[in-house]
Amino acid sequence: MVTQHSPAPDWYRTAFRYDYLRVYPHRNDEEACRQVDFLLERLDVAPPCDVLDLGCGDGRHSLELTRRGFRVTGLDLSEELLERARRRTAEEGLDIDFIQGDMRDPPGVRAYDLVVNFFTSFGYFREDAENARVLEAISRSLRPGGRYLMDYLNREFVISTLVPSDHRTVEGMEVEQRRWITGDPTAAGAHVRINKQVRIREDGAERSYDESVRMYTLEELEALMERAGLKVTRTYGDFDGRPVSGDAPRNILLGQTGPTKHARQAEHASQTEHASQTETASQTEHASQAEHAGDTKSRPGAASRDEKPAMPCP
Length: 314
What we know:
The protein is α/β, with parallel strands linked by helices. The chain contains 9 helices and 11 strands.
């Protein structure tokens, strides 16, 4: 039986350390290379352009994008992972700006042509409003017409394939993982999360880390993006290009900047007001012309000002 507890609201401040890389050894450079291939085949971006790797971790995607000629800025909260990213960058003689910071407040406004967010680096915060701030930050960071990729979990797949606990040995350390879901996935709009406790035993010592990610449905995520001014143009169920389905492990969203819902509403209101003003002006002009025509008939010698063509404006 899985022992459930409530992860701390700021669990992400301590979860992403060197142990994280050891627990997920398959998240490597070879995988990053395949995922960047996928990205470049499907988004109209080419080097050199400016890329923000949001939640870059140890920089595996930042490195691959830089190798291909892009100008990359990587942002992550974990100084430990960033130190590894900087060391690897220096070893290859590459130039990448790695910044320690919060994904809700990345550097630069309208500074990037592409923002990437890989391996479910979204949904960390307890409040939906805080998660929405991440999407607003992506929108704010992109230049007009800029593109983005978000690689996110598939809630339906996570629920159907959940393994409550497992135990394995990695690099000489014992790793025990416990997983549980909170919230009612069958209730519309419910706050549903996937939670995990990772317990590591090594050299007679024990340490543990928590993870807790908000599991949005694809429809919920698309609605959040729309409100943030991000247009979703394509979705995929994994990096092999399969469509989204209950059997697909990922929700990969591709798109670009677009008007926010508020901006569209304001534009619609402006167009409605303009149409109303045009109709009123047309009615007034028609009434004036009718009155003028009646006056002309009563004075046979009078000439109409509308008989001469108007001169074009310079």
